[in-house]
Specification:
There is one protein chain. By secondary structure, the chain is α+β, with helices and mostly antiparallel strands. The relative contact order is 0.15. The protein folds into two domains: 94 residues, Phosphorylase Kinase, domain 1, CATH 3.30.200; 160 residues, ATP-grasp fold, B domain (D-amino Acid Aminotransferase, Chain A, domain 1, 2-Layer Sandwich), CATH 3.30.470. Strands 8, 11, 12, 13, 14 and 17 form a six-stranded antiparallel β-sheet that branches. A four-stranded antiparallel β-sheet has the order 1-2-3-6. A three-stranded antiparallel β-sheet has the order 7-15-16, covered by helices on one side. It starts with 8 loop residues before the first strand and ends with a helix. 35% of the residues lie in helices and 25% in strands. Bound molecules: adenosine-5'-triphosphate (ATP) and magnesium ion. Adenosine-5'-triphosphate binds next to β2, β3 and β6.
C-alpha cells in the first residue's frame, strides 16, 4: 500500500482506496480525530487494479465534501450529521485529497439504495424477479427506474473478504432494530434528496452506498465517502430517456467503465490484468465531468 510519511500523523490502516492515520501524539490521538486520505487506487470486484486513476483521490474527496455540505443543509433539507471534524486542515502534502474526521464506531453494514435496476440487481431480477430478496413487478428492463427506491443492505466483510447482501431482518440481528431502522430510513432520505439534486443537473443517481458510524454520543453519523463515482452509479439523464440500448441508456459517470472493461477482459481467476491507458483516461475524464456537472 502507499501510506505516506505525514508530519504529525501515524498510518494505522489501508483499505482498498483510502489510507487512515491517527495523530502521532498520544494526547492528540485521545480526542478521536482521524485523517482519511483518498488515494488514486481503483478497485473492482473487490480487487485493487493497476495502474491507478490520476487525480481520482482528489476528485473523490472534493465530491464527498460537496455532498456533505449539501446534506448538512445547503440543499434545503435537514442536517444529516457527518464525520467531518472541522477546524483542522489536513497536511499540505495531501491537502486536496484528505479529510480530518471524527473516528466513529462504524456499523458493519453497507447501506445500499437502488432507484434503478442494473448490475447485480438486474442479474438477480432476471433470474428470480427479486432484488436482494425484495419482489419487484414483472416486465422491468435493465436500466429501468424502480417503482420506488429500495434499501438493500450488505454485510461489510473484513478486509480481503467479499461483502455479502443480507436481508433487512439479518441487519436487525446484526445492529439491532432501532439502528437498522435508522440506517434504512436515513439512507432512503439521503438517496431521495441526492437523486433530486442530481436530476436538476441532468444526472440520474441510479444507486449508491453509504456507511454510517455512531459518534461518542451515540448519534448516527454519515462517514466514509459519500455519493462519489466510486460508491454510486450516475447516468446522463437525457441519454437514459432517449437511448434504445442498455449501453446508450446507462452512459456512466462512474466506475462502471472499469467494471465493464474488466468483466470482458478477465475470467476472475488469478491477478486482474493491467488497465489499458484509454480506460484509465476515460475514467479520469468522467470523474472530472461528474464533479464539474454537480458542483462546478
Ligand atoms: P475495507 O475497510 O474492507 O478495506 P474499503 O476497501 O471500502 O473496505 P476504504 O474505503 O479504502 O476501504 O477505506 C476506508 C475505511 O475507513 C473503511 O473501512 C471505512 O469503513 C473506514 N471509515 C470511514 N470513515 C470512518 C470514520 N469516520 N471512522 C472510522 N472508520 C471510518
Ligand atoms: Mg470503501
Amino acid at each position: 500500500m502507499s501510506a505516506l510519511d505525514l508530519p504529525g500523523w501515524k498510518h494505522v490502516y489501508s483499505g482498498k482506496v483510502r489510507d487512515l492515520y491517527r495523530p502521532a501524539d498520544e494526547a492528540a490521538a485521545a480526542d478521536g480525530r482521524m485523517l482519511v486520505v483518498a488515494s488514486d487506487r481503483v478497485s473492482a470486484f473487490d480487487h485493487v487494479l493497476e495502474p491507478g486513476i490520476p487525480g481520482k483521490g482528489e476528485l473523490l474527496t472534493r465530491l464527498s465534501l460537496w455532498w456533505f455540505a449539501q446534506l448538512a443543509g445547503a440543499d434545503g433539507g435537514r442536517v444529516i450529521p457527518n464525520h467531518l471534524a472541522g477546524g483542522e486542515a489536513p497536511p499540505a502534502a495531501v491537502a486536496a485529497r484528505a479529510m480530518v474526521v471524527r473516528e466513529l464506531d462504524m456499523q458493519p453494514i453497507e447501506c445500499v439504495v437502488r432507484g434503478y435496476l442494473t448490475g447485480t440487481g438486474w442479474a438477480e431480477y432476471r433470474a428470480d424477479g427479486t432484488v436482494c430478496g425484495i419482489p419487484l413487478p414483472a416486465g422491468l428492463e435493465n436500466g429501468d427506474r424502480l417503482p420506488e427506491p429500495i434499501f438493500t443492505p450488505a454485510y461489510k466483510a473484513p478486509l480481503g473478504e467479499h461483502d455479502e447482501n443480507i436481508s433487512f431482518e439479518r441487519t436487525v440481528e446484526i445492529v439491532g432494530a432501532d439502528t437498522a431502522a435508522a440506517l434504512r430510513d436515513t439512507s432512503l432520505e439521503i438517496y431521495t434528496r441526492a437523486a433530486a439534486l442530481a436530476e436538476s443537473k441532468g444526472l440520474i443517481l441510479a444507486d449508491t452506498k453509504f456507511e454510517f458510524g455512531l459518534d461518542a454520543d451515540g448519534v448516527l453519523t454519515l462517514a466514509d465517502e459519500v455519493l462519489t463515482s466510486d460508491s454510486s452509479r450516475y447516468w446522463d439523464a437525457a441519454a437514459w430517456r432517449t437511448g434504445s440500448t442498455p449501453d446508450q441508456r446507462m452512459a456512466s459517470y462512474d466506475k462502471q467503465i472499469v467494471r465493464d472493461w474488466l468483466a470482458a477482459a478477465w475470467d476472475r481467476t488469478g491477478t486482474p490484468p493491467q488497465l489499458p491507458a484509454d480506460i484509465v483516461e476515460r475514467t479520469a475524464g468522467k470523474y472530472r465531468e461528474l464533479l464539474d456537472t454537480l458542483a462546478g
